[in-house]
Amino acid sequence: MLEDKNVENEIERAFDYFDDDGDGNIDFDKFKRVAIDIGEDVSDDVIRDMINAADFDQDGKVSKDEFMMVMRKMKLI
Fold this sequence. Notes:
Blueprint: H1 2-18, E1 25-26, H2 28-37, H3 44-54, E2 62-63, H4 64-73
Antiparallel strand pairs: 1-2
């Protein structure tokens, strides 16, 4: 169980890396910034698709809860 908690903590830290202003959401600009930070050449359309896939309430942003739900569906936690 401790291992699972460590994984969850790491995923929360990943969310926080995206959410650099601490408003509790990841939007297009934050995804784009992280892609650039890590040297990934990701098209705007792919970023929009990623947001849409995780944006269950369709507000144009990914909340921490939505982010965690996606990670659980992917069996990362």
